[in-house]
Amino acid sequence: MTVALERTSRLRQEIRPQPGSQQDFLASSADIAIAGGAAGGGKTWGLLLEPIRHVSVQHFGAVIFRREMPRITQEGGMWDESLTLYPYLGGVPRMSPTHEWRFPSGATITFAHLQHETDKLNWAGAQIPLLLFDQLEEFTEGQFWYLLSRNRSTVGIRPYLRATCNPVPEDDPVGGWLHRLLQWWIDPVTGYAIAARSGALRWFSRVGDELVWGDSRAGLLAELLARGVPAEDADPLSLTFIPMDLESNRALLAKDPGYRAKLLALPLVERERLLRGNWNVKPTAGKVLNRAWFRILRDAPAPTDDRGRARIVARVRYWDKAGSVAKPGTDPDWTAGVRIARLADGPFLIESVVRGRWTHGDRERVIVQTAQTDPPGTAIWVEQEPGSGGKESAELTIQRLAGYTVRADKVTGAAVARVGPLASQAEAGNVWLLGADWNEPFLVECHAFPDGAHDDQVLAAAGALTKLALGVGTAGMSRVVGL
Length: 483
Known about the structure:
alpha/beta; Rossmann fold; Nucleotidyltransferase, domain 5; 10-stranded mixed beta sheet
């Protein structure tokens, strides 16, 4: 597909897909074509390009869905990208009450979300000739099949669906259905897409709750009739999957040569998914954090280097506070406080881990006593869990630590995502441990994450490292020179 776009008599722009997977995606004849499997492959631009072949058709409509509206309107998101493309076709943007483009023919391209499962019902009665999903793995199976029923047309264009995705394992609670839908195109052993099957069409029809598949439309029709499906109900749809990866997006590699390095810096699991397109990899023991990645120092580094400069530029003690006290026959969480120092030459040194199962009063006393013994200048962070109870607990600790640099950290997101920065640095060999009796319990918990019974030390270490790496709440600590 090549389109010459003219915005003014002096400005003319030719838009065409990149050769390879993006071109294959836009050339597919499938009723449903899904592209992706890795980051940086040009998936989003493929979706934005698809509708422009129809915007001269009167009353044509396309809807592009993201699971949440902020993903559409965020800096550099789909809406921003559309602003660089659709004006050339005479498109006029409208941002209220919906984000929508209107074209001289009366055609529209709408950006919408399905944040909640029931949001799909807002589209009852809709007719959407071209249905598009960005990051399909974020949508539920129910949302996908319901919206597919709205994929119909009275404007002379055969209705069809296009979607992009990133890999998810089969047991993913939200997107696992997509893995199962595409499993014919995925090697069950390696988790990587089977190159020889890229773009190959398969045909399916639903019989009861089962999807029945065929390698050809005629073959599937014969199978359906053999199963007793009435001829009027035997109307298969075609589906294909086209892998995309960073190598197929030469435009991005030319504009941002450092993007590959950013993907390589991801933790192991996310790197396998977003760089290599692995559909099987998932967070398991030893994959998020591996104990072999941590270097143990027998002795503390010298306070200064051979030129008299301080070796340590900042310190953070981060507390993950348990919400319950140990009772006979139970295995509750621990309270853990992890102190990490950042060395001037880059590595992070975990110097101290304090943990225990204390009563609320004893826990607060231990936190204060630890602050009194930590080196001067150590910044203190306390995890603030959601809800009023978490806020009150964090405020109580901050009051008791009057005189120290202390802040509350309102944590959000899944534990695996929060541990990502720690995992990336550890795998690169940039996280060291100061030899002590807490090393073994800490390493055991790290290696078992996220499958282990506890993650308190891991989350406390992740919190401290993230604050140090971002320089958040550590101002003025460059004067620290001792251990």
